[in-house]
Amino acid sequence: MELKEKIIKQASEAKGASKKLAHLGSEVKNQALLAMADALEERVEEILQANEQDMEYGRENGLSESLLDRLLLTEARVSKMAQGLREVAQFSDPIGEVLEMKKRPNGLKIGKVQVPLGVIGIIYEARPNVTVDAAGLCLKAGNTVVLRGSSSAINSNKAIVNVISRAAYDAGLPEGSIQLLESTERKAVQVMFELNDYLDVLIPRGGAGLIQAVVNNSTVPVIETGVGNCHTFIDSQADLDKAEQIVINAKTQRTGVCNAMETLLVHEDVAEEFLPAIIEELRERDTLVKGDKKVREIVSDVKEATTEDWATEFLDYILAIKIVSSLDQALEHIDEYSTSHSEAIVTENYTKAHKFLDLVDSAAVYVNASTRFTDGGQFGLGAEIGISTQKLHARGPMGVNQLTTTKFIIFGDGQIRQ
Amino acid sequence: MELKEKIIKQASEAKGASKKLAHLGSEVKNQALLAMADALEERVEEILQANEQDMEYGRENGLSESLLDRLLLTEARVSKMAQGLREVAQFSDPIGEVLEMKKRPNGLKIGKVQVPLGVIGIIYEARPNVTVDAAGLCLKAGNTVVLRGSSSAINSNKAIVNVISRAAYDAGLPEGSIQLLESTERKAVQVMFELNDYLDVLIPRGGAGLIQAVVNNSTVPVIETGVGNCHTFIDSQADLDKAEQIVINAKTQRTGVCNAMETLLVHEDVAEEFLPAIIEELRERDTLVKGDKKVREIVSDVKEATTEDWATEFLDYILAIKIVSSLDQALEHIDEYSTSHSEAIVTENYTKAHKFLDLVDSAAVYVNASTRFTDGGQFGLGAEIGISTQKLHARGPMGVNQLTTTKFIIFGDGQIRQ
C-alpha cells in the first residue's frame, strides 16, 4: 500500500475509534490504563529487546551519548512508564462535566459540557516514554492518538504500542485507539500535516526545528510546545541568598529542559556584590558563563555574550548574563528575546514584583522561585502532554483538561427565534 | 513603500500598541468605546459619503442586490453600530480576573490570570459593520486589531476606521490600536498569513471559500468560523406542532446565515403525517424543497436531492429533506455531512433527546428548539466575533471571553526544584 494511503487508513481508524471512545465511561478507560501498565511490566523483555536494536543502530550511526541515554530503556524505566499510566488512571475524568448552565429569558437552558477533542496527532523525538505518556493522557481524556516518533526509536515504539494497544483493546477500548506510524520516511510527517479530516490537533514535542517545521507546514491546528529561552532577573532589592539558590537551581539542576534558565539579568546596584560569587559557583558546576561588557568589567575572564547568545536556548551548561540599570530595562530585554515560556524576578519589593507579574507576557511568570517549576506535575495538573508557548487553547503546562473541548447543549421546549 | 513592508509596519504598530493596551484599566477602555460610538454618529455624513462611493462602484461592477444591500450604510445602520459599541462598553471586563489560585505543598501559590491574546487579525467580507463590531470586541478584551475587509467596502471601511481610531486615541487608547489594511490586492492577505511575529490569531469571517483559504495557507494560528450545514431531526415521538414551528423558523426566519437549517431529517413513522403540510408551508414561503426517493413518494412533485445537496450550505430558500428509519440513521447522516455547527432533535422522548445531545459532535446541539439561536447575543455572551466550528480554543459563539488567554502567575519565597 502506498505510504499516504496507509497513513490515511490509520488516521481514519483512529477517527472511527474516537467516536466510540468519546462515550465510554471512566471505569472502562481507567481499567484500560491499568491493563496497559500491567502489560508493559509483564512484557518488558520484548520491549527491551526491541530497544536494544535501536541502541545498536544508534551506536553504529554515531548518536551522541546524551541521545543514546534518552533512547535507552531499562526495566526500571519501563516500570516508571507503567507507574505513570497508573497515576493517570487516578486522575478525575474531565469528560462530561457540565461547566456551566444558564436559563435564558425565553426559557432555553443553555449549558457547556466538556468533551474530548477527538483525534490527537503527536510528533515527537527520541524518548520512547513519550509514546506511553502521550497515549495515556489522550485516552484518559477520551481521545484517540496518532503517534509519530523518531526513526531512531522506531523498534522500541513499535514494541511499546504493540503491547499497550493490545492491552487497551482487551480491556474494552475501541480497536485502533492507539496508532503508530511505522514509516520512518520524512514524507510521513508531511502527510500528517494535511490530515484535517481526521486529526483535530497536532502537537509537536521536540526541538525548535521540529516545532517550527510543524507550525509552518501543518494545516491541521497546532499547539506549539516547548521552546524556552527563560530569564531570571535579580532586582536591586533582591534577597541575594534566595537569588543565589534560584540561579543555581534554574541553570544547573537540569540543563536539557525547556524550563531551565538561559539568560540571567542582574540589576547594576547588586552586580558587584552578586556576580563574582555566583559566577564562581556556576563554574564549579561546569557552567560556561558569557557576559556583556559590564559583566566582564566585574569578572574579567568571562567570555563575551553576543546578540545571538541572548536569543539562544542553550539547553546546556551555558549561561548568558547581562547587567541592566532598571526593572524596565530587564522587561525590555525579556520582551525582545523571550520565547514566552517562563521568566522570574527575584525581589523583596512588592511593587516591582507585581509590575513584573503584570508586564511579562509569558506562559509562567514567577516571583522568587526557580523557573524549573513550569511542569504539569509541579503545577498539580498531574502528568502533562507538553508545555504550550502559544496563546490559543492552552498556555503553559497542558494536562488532561487541556486535551478536551466543549460543546453547547441546549434544552428547549419549542422555542423559535423572533 | 512596498506592500509587504507597509503591512508589516502596520502589524508592528498594532503589536506595540497591544503591549500598552493590555495594561489599561476598564474605565479607559470603556470611555474609548463610548467615544467611538459618539464619533460614528457625529461624523455619519463622512461615512455615508464614502459608502456611496462603494455603492456606486458596486453597481457599476454588477454586484447582486443582496450584496449591495449588505454593503449599504444608512444613518440608522451607523447608529446601530454605535449602539453595539455602547453595549460592549457595558460588558464586564474579562482581563485581570484570577480564574484559580492554589497553594502547592512546597508553599508556591500558583494562579491563572486572564490576559488579552495580543493582536487579532480579522479577514472579512462585504458588511462594513464588522469593522466596528470586531474592533469593539477586540479592544474590550485588551487586544489590538489588524483588519482586512473586502475591496468592495474599502471606502466605507477607511472612513469608519478613520473616525473610530481617532476617537479611540483621543480617549486614551494607544496610537495604532486599530489598523486597517488599505490595499485591496489579494497579496495583502498572503502577507497576513505569515505575520506570526505580530499576530496572535487570525479569524476569517465570510464564506466557505475564504475560510478554507485562510485555514490552508496561514501559519498564524486560525480560528475557523461559520460554515454551517445545520440539521434538524424530527423524531417519531416528536410533538409535530413544535416540529412545524421549529422547521419553519430554522429554515425561513433568515436564510443567509450560518445557523439556518439546510437539511431536515424526518423519521419514517411520522413522515406521511408531517411532510405534506410542512412542504406546502415551506413553499408558501418561497422555499424550494428537495427530497430523497421516500420523500418524493409522499409528495410527488418534490425535486430530487443529490448527494451534493446533503453536503451543501444553501444559505438560501432551499431545503433538502431525507426520511430516516431511526435515530441512529439520523445520527449517521449528521456525522457524515454536518459541518459541526448546530443540529437539533425534535422529540418528546427523554432517552432519545439525551442520546442525541451526547452523540452529536457539533458546537451547539439542541433539543426542541430552532438552530437559529446559535449566536452570541442569544446565548447571553453579549456580542460575538464569530461562531467557531473548530475544537481548539473556542467552540460555538465567541464573545469577549474567547478573545483572551491565560498566564500562570507564581508567588514564591525562594523555592527551588528538588
Automatic annotation (TrEMBL), chains A, B:
Domain Aldehyde dehydrogenase: 5-284
HAMAP family: ProA (MF_00412)
Pathway note: Amino-acid biosynthesis; L-proline biosynthesis; L-glutamate 5-semialdehyde from L-glutamate: step 2/2
Keyword Transcription belongs to the record: no
Sequence similarity: Belongs to the gamma-glutamyl phosphate reductase family.
Xref: Pfam families: Aldedh
Keyword entries, A-Z: Amino-acid biosynthesis, Cytoplasm, NADP, Oxidoreductase, Proline biosynthesis
GO CC, alphabetical: cytoplasm
Descriptive protein name: Gamma-glutamyl phosphate reductase
Catalysed conversion reaction: L-glutamate 5-semialdehyde + phosphate + NADP(+) = L-glutamyl 5-phosphate + NADPH + H(+)
Principal location: cytoplasm
The keyword Transferase appears for this protein: no
CDD domains referenced in this protein's UniProt entry, alphabetically: ALDH_F18-19_ProA-GPR
One MF annotation (Gene Ontology) recorded for this entry: glutamate-5-semialdehyde dehydrogenase activity
Function: Catalyzes the NADPH-dependent reduction of L-glutamate 5-phosphate into L-glutamate 5-semialdehyde and phosphate. The product spontaneously undergoes cyclization to form 1-pyrroline-5-carboxylate.
Organism field: Halobacteroides halobius (strain ATCC 35273 / DSM 5150 / MD-1)
BP-aspect Gene Ontology terms: L-proline biosynthetic process
InterPro entries from the UniProt entry: Ald_DH/histidinol_DH (IPR016161), Ald_DH_C (IPR016163), Ald_DH_N (IPR016162), Aldehyde_DH_dom (IPR015590), G-glutamylP_reductase_CS (IPR020593), Glu-5-SA_DH (IPR012134), GPR_dom (IPR000965)
Localisation: Cytoplasm
Residues of the signal peptide: none
EC number: 1.2.1.41
